[in-house]
Amino acid sequence: MYGQAQAAMVNPFEARGNNVMILGILSLVCCGILGPIAWVQGNGIKGEAESAGWPEPGNSKAGRICGIVSTCLLAVGVAFYAIAFIAAAAGSS
Known about the structure:
Elements: H1 14-29, H2 34-51, H3 58-92
Helix pairs in contact: 1-2, 1-3, 2-3
């Protein structure tokens, strides 16, 4: 009705998105192994929110993207060390 305050609809997935965002940021800053965890949890929240008719929470999306970036950096780092280890092993024999 006109003149009455309407209750704002709050996305019920916002609170769970905070955890994903924290994991994503921590994966970039100090512990890269948290990246895949943030990525998987972010995908889960995205799927649940979309199936319930809600948009993906912004903080969940940010954490998921940080998790993707961190996972890619982790994969590049592991590949670099594997190549360096193989080259060192081949050079010493």
